[in-house]
Amino acid sequence: MAEQIYTIPVNDAFDSGCECPMCQMQKDLERNAIEYTMGPSYMEDDNRAMTDKLGFCSHHLRMLYQEKNRLGLALMMNTHMNKTIQDMRALAAKGPAAKAGLFGKNTPNAPVVDYIENMEKSCFICGRMDDMFVRYVDTIFHMEKRFRVQGQICYEQRLLYIPLRNTVQDRPEQTEQGTVCAVHRNPQQGIL
Questions:
Q1: CB under 8 Å to 69, separation ≥6 — which residues?
Q2: Contact 166, 32 (CB under 8 A)
Q3: Under DSSP, is residue 186 helix (H, G, I), strand (E, B) or coil?
Q4: Coil, strand, or helix at residue 173?
Q5: Of 31, 110, 155, 164, which has fewest CB within 10 angstroms of its CB?
Q6: pLDDT, greater one: 8 or 173
Q7: What pLDDT score was predicted for residue 100?
């Protein structure tokens, strides 16, 4: 297969001679996402709106803090916190969640609680990495002959390989079994 623009990161990872090409792709994606976030993109309105909405997980916030552009990070965090406060005030003004009936088993959470739980699960960088990694896995499936011949995949990536194949082919959010596919960021180094 002739090298295309979308096959370059996959080919580079498989040609690098590392223990696990898929782990290498994840490391590269994380580094690229950090550089993108701290680069000029933080001044673009659409990117700022996404970082304001999603925020960052603690792992990636630490990585962003270690970058040189701390003023840019402060600006992003300021607008994110302002939006979060504004959203939480609006939700708090709506009042508590409606109570279930007398024998209701599931009492709904207050809107503020749901908002906080969703914020704890969201990260701009994780989302960017996951979107790109699914594309890389799709590229690997298109290059499956080369994938079987070259490179060894670590145990954790093999566990993710089959569910992500179903995910790419069926629905981007879930596998056929209904379980959500998550790309772990601390892969084991064991090789099968």
A1: 38, 42
A2: no
A3: coil
A4: coil
A5: 31
A6: 8
A7: 60
User: Rounded CA gap, 143 and 137, in Å?
Assistant: 10
Q: How far apart are CA 154 and CA 152, in angstroms?
A: 7
Those residues with Cβ within 8 angstroms of residue 119's Cβ, 6 or more apart along the chain or in another chain: 55, 84
Q: Are 23 and 154 contacting, i.e. CB atoms less than 8 angstroms apart?
A: yes
Q: Whole-angstrom Cα distance, residue 14 to residue 138?
A: 15
Residue range 127-172, pLDDT digits in tens: 999 999 888 888 877 776 665 544 456 767 666 665 655 554 444 4
Q: Cα dist. 172→87, 99, 142, 164 in Å?
A: 28, 34, 17, 9
In contact, 73 and 38? CB cutoff 8 Å:
yes
Can you give the pLDDT at residue 191? 34
> Angle 59-62-67 (CA atoms, 0-180°, nearest 5)?
130
Question: Between 185 and 105, whose confidence is greater?
Answer: 105
Contacts with 68 (C-beta within 8 Å, 6 or more apart), sequence order? 38
CA 7 vs CA 12, 13, 63, 161: distances in Å: 8, 10, 28, 17
- The answer to whether 37 touches 75, Cβ cutoff 8 Å, is no
